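Input:
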Amino acid sequence: MGCESETIDLLRETGHKMTPQRMMILTSLRHAKGHMTAAEIFDRVKAEYPYVDISTVYRTLGVLKDLHLIAETDMGLGDATFEWVGNERHHHLICRKCNHVTQLDHDYLAEVGAKIAKDMGFRADLDHFAIFGLCAGCQKELTASK
Amino acid sequence: MGCESETIDLLRETGHKMTPQRMMILTSLRHAKGHMTAAEIFDRVKAEYPYVDISTVYRTLGVLKDLHLIAETDMGLGDATFEWVGNERHHHLICRKCNHVTQLDHDYLAEVGAKIAKDMGFRADLDHFAIFGLCAGCQKELTASK
DNA sequence: AGAGTAAATGCAACTGGTTGCAAGTAGGCG
DNA sequence: CGCCTACTTGCAACCAGTTGCATTTACTCT
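Output:
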């Protein structure tokens, strides 16, 4: 057995099936260091099994996302990216000038989430947020050139 | 002169031009009550001037968005929507079950934004956020059916 | 008013992603 | 083990949105 047994169980418990294609997509994502685009995943899987279709990749990413095993992030420029989410939730601060990405601890958003729940009765999904803005370096650059 | 004179000035000051197409797109958005999809705007403009191209609509929406005159929101299901933003900033709470949309006051996010700026030196763009989750009604429904 | 220029338009081709459908397959159950 | 059915796959057609390019047009400067 590989290191994915709990993932397989979770899939089956929720009425899904484990197929070779899914297995390959899964391991691609788990063993990747950070974000991957759908095309990157597609290429990796195709290297092992050339008959996969891109729609299979997207559909699998969809079910993994529904199960909160992965997170989709729109980095703003071009393709969406996907990443494996372990137990710790985190968020991304994306600089709209230099495209640099830093992580943001979940606590920052957990607090707002709690407040929204209290005031509005709305339970917000705050698993994974992409927050755009200007990083410290690019702020300095802009004010300097003024 | 219509009621858009300050918008026209803002466009010109930022090196853009006011064209009839832009004018029509602009008034469509300003006079709409809420969110509009690009296709809806396209149809409205085409009724008046049948030669517009959809790419013109998207490009105009792009510059208006850059100038923070409108906000683009991905409602999650299907097409992106656009809306005119006046002076007050607001956010949306979107129920992932019943798709109901409620507004969220800017204060909730302004606070996190300030904290992120202080701790991380990152100036977040928090103009307009779409927050998914479960509304009060759908939460009750789900727990009741368990 | 008229010339010059940067920006905008319309078109067509393209990209990322989605969907409907017929055929195939995982996995439960006897 | 082998049947059965719901889920999944690959394919092709499709959809929203983007891009490159030649032509046109709004605005500036004189």
